[in-house]
UniProtKB/TrEMBL annotation:
Gene3D superfamilies in alphabetical order: NAD(P)-binding Rossmann-like Domain
Organism in which the protein naturally occurs: Paenibacillus radicis
Annotated transmembrane regions: none
This protein's name: SDR family oxidoreductase
Pfam families noted in UniProt: Epimerase
Amino acid sequence: MKKALVLGATGGSGQALVAELLSRGVETIAFGRSQSKLRELAAQYGNPKLLHTAVGDVFNPDDIIAAAKDVDVIFQSANVKYQEMASQLLPLGESVMKAADHVGKKIVIVDGIYVYGRSQMTRVTEDHPKNPHTNKGKIRVEFEKLIFDKKWQHAQALIVRLPDYYGPTSQNAYLHPTLQGIAANKTSIFIGDLNTPREYVYLPDAAKMIIEIADRDESYGKNWNIPGLGAISGREILDIARKVTGYRKMVIPLGKSMISLLGLFDPLMREVVEILYLTKEPLILSGEKYSKRIGTIPTTPFEKGIEETLKIWMQKNETKNHKNRNIVPFK
């Protein structure tokens, strides 16, 4: 792989992919809707020669086609809002696949685990039944069918499936508000039961695995699990975070009743309720396929990953606060 296009490049997984591609010397086009966010992303790397930006709408295949003409692989990491998944996910899939098919490119679709529904295996392989009991899971099954539809005669697609994740670039993840509150030294929340161990993957590790998979011709036409280090409880995460930061404020666990109540006023929380089963019935991904066909699974220890995430976010908070202190009010 010499050149890649990352759709949704300013998102959590998109930024991690951009960083990993650049670290490997891959010329990378960061694609997104916001020119200002793309500029901020480029500035993080000192605007290197390997990194280019393209402003466009992922729902417009012509915009993607214009950016993808000379690339080897397209990474689709753009996502839709939770509350818009039913109406927006399939149009998103149609757009990116239409573009990839038009230019005859390989395309890697970053997706989640809702298609599996409730776990029927100790460690879920790619062969796990896909008969989900939730609306979001059913939509994701239709999304997968669209990606692998035979009508796409020129594109080669694969899907990578991530569990919940965390990391310095994380944005829309269950653990994000918890660590964000801790980094800001504010009272924080935790979605779900603090005592139930759950799987999380560190985004830099996920990006490494995704790119290794994408770089092999035999990977396409298949689903691939992207496992984390293993399961860890919310209390264990808080213990690590407190040791790193000295944080002593309260962390409030949000169960189904509280989230349902918040959902009366917040459309996002309203949508979270149906997949809360994952916070009580954890689904753990198997990495057997990756280990056998690709190699060693990168596994950053939780202590290191959480520390790196919090330190970066705390530094950003300090920089932001410093800038605010230096603002002279208009008189």
